[in-house]
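Known limitations

Files may contain more than one protein. Parsers should not assume a single record per file. Below, a two-record file is shown to illustrate correct handling: read the sequence, read the token line, then continue until end of file.
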Amino acid sequence: AVGDGWGLASAVRHLGSGLGLGGDHAAAIAAADQAIAFAEAVGAADDAAWWRAERGMSWLRAGDLASARADLERAAAGHAARSAMVLAFADAGLGEISRHAGDPGRARALLTEARHRLDETAGVPSRVRLLPLTGLARLAVSSGELPEARGFLAEAFRLALAAEPPLTQDRPSIAGATEALADLALADGRAADAARLLGYAAAVRGAPDLGNPDVRQSEATARAALDGEYERLHVPAGQLSPDAAVTEVTALAAELTGARFG
């Protein structure tokens, strides 16, 4: 019965994540509620903490910073010794809250701490390792520190593209790095490339991330800069196969960051 419960909790979480990509934050949060309740019922404290941190990130995406902070702080409480990955994930999430709340100094400190903690922790999924890197990159872009942003994004792409064989990498991670790269393209005055990058990200992932406030802001900025040309650039990019989109993204990432991949 416990095994069936784990399977159901995982299925509900997976469904909630997919709905969250479409912007249905309530569904993503409700799915996390069920997963947390099950983990707590069977005494799985670390799993409950991880799912609570994930729910905190869903609250952040929904724009409820207070609920996001409450979940992430509770997830981190008491887990420093038992789960460095939970603590680092929570720190990264709290850093993202500070970034969205307009506190770049605290955001940088928390994201940097999360990055260092993750570097020292084995078995961390690449999507979690990318969170502080893309957050730091966006902070650097917003403060005009573009060389620093290029360095963070180069590291993010090296991580996301690291799987073998080629073109079978962690595609959600590549998509997330690509969306952050669009911010750098905009800062470089390359709105056309930003429009393409947002399309490539959707193609790589298999769907656009309509629930991400950073992506929505990037799209709005690119649309404003392109004066009606956004769809002409964005739509064909989003219609590529995942492998073709990864190839295009890799080339643009090398050009925008000045790094070499592969």
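...continuing to the second record:
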Amino acid sequence: LFNYGIPIVGVMFLGDLLITGNRYVLNYNGLYEFIGVYSIYMFVCTIAFQVLTEPVVSYFHPILFKLYDETKEKFEVIFSTMSVLLIMLAIYMSIHIIKYEDFIINLIANDQYKYSDENFIIIVVLGGFFCSLYRIFSTLYYVEKNTHRLSILVAISLVVSLLLALLLVQELSLLGVAIAYALSQFLLAGYLIINCLCKINFYLDTKMILVFFATLLISIIFSKNFTFDVIYFSIFVDFFIGGLLALFLINRLMIRS
């Protein structure tokens, strides 16, 4: 309980603070007008990447726990395939969140909450993407029952995010806060990925990767050569393509498992 269960509470609590904590930096610096903007952008990215990663990770957690103790090689194959699948879908989702920024912000709020700097949405999405990598590769800490160390790593990432935000907000305002979050998530995810690569064999499915890049190319060609007066058609086509990609990748994962 004390070595595994209670540290998970710390991971969850600190993880939520990592996502929302920089709002307090904005408040501390008197940038009240940006708190709502930051909250909406973070909400969009957090929900989008959670919807993508949580069902798959949660489904495979019991399987991976069992295989880690019984058949290490099988564990490595399934974990590698699951990770590659989620990374590719996260890349696809990242591109389309950026593409449909205006539509998404207007769907949730209105134009007043759209930030003028075009780099802002890219930085926020990168932060969400790195956060999804953290969620994927933290799996190894769970199966090792090493959540105590994971909670420490998340705590360090939170401190880094807050300190960087305090430094960058003076010069870069809201963009600095977003950079601080993205960079802290990048460092956390990077450490977890390196840890995984040092401990297990990581297998790449060539067919999955080729299909992903082919699908991405089709989506890009479609976007460049076809435009619709009604944005809903464009969204439908992009997500239909993404849905077909997801079905193929998930089927591939289920076959290998």
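Parsers that stop after the first record will miss the second one. For reference, the second record is described as follows. The first helix runs from residue 5 to 20.
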